[in-house]
Design a protein that fits this description.
Strand content: 25-35%
Shape: elongated
Helix content: 25-40%
Largest sheet: 6 strands, mixed
Low-confidence stretches: none
Mean pLDDT: 74
Length: 159
């Protein structure tokens, strides 16, 4: 007859084995597995917490050194690398029932610097988005005139 200690050991071993099988079976979306290597650094002028009005509601936007609303920003891939990874994603996406590409595109962004009237800004698109122009977020820090007291205040402009 098996004593209580041995039953507990068998139960714990079985539970750990089942947990290992479950964890290994999960599909994880990791930016590094889709070609992202180098984090993008946002311009200092654009960092901070910004507020804006959309559909009558006040919304919050937080930009840190390497994130945009808690989504990691990576440097854009070269054209050849982007084509290679996009083909790989399309093939894998078909196998997953066309859900993977959207998950990859919204879990990390590709970003690039630009200048708007000599002011630093950045553009961020979904990772491996097929439409590389005008499909994401483009932001630049500006000075805006406050209507109430004619002071100039910091503002973030979406282009």
């Amino acid at each position: 007859m098996i004593n209580l200690k041995n039953k507990l050991i068998i139960f714990m071993t079985t539970a750990l084995f089942m947990l290992a099988i479950i964890v290994m079976g999960q599909n994880r979306v990791d930016a590094a597995s889709w070609g992202a290597k180098n984090l993008f650094t946002t311009p200092k002028e654009t960092r901070g917490t910004w507020y804006y009005k959309q559909e009558g509601k006040i919304k919050k936007l937080k930009i840190t050194t390497h994130t945009f609303n808690k989504i990691k920003l990576y440097k854009m891939l070269s054209s050849n690398q982007a084509i290679k990874w996009t083909k790989k994603l399309a093939k894998t996406d078909k196998k997953s029932g066309y859900k993977l590409a959207q998950k990859v595109g919204t879990s990390q962004y590709e970003a690039t610097d630009f200048k708007f009237y000599k002011t630093a800004g950045f553009a961020a698109n979904g990772w491996l988005s097929s439409d590389r122009a005008d499909s994401g977020h483009t932001y630049v820090a500006i000075k805006k005139k406050d209507k109430s007291n004619n002071d100039k205040v910091d503002a973030l402009r979406r282009l």
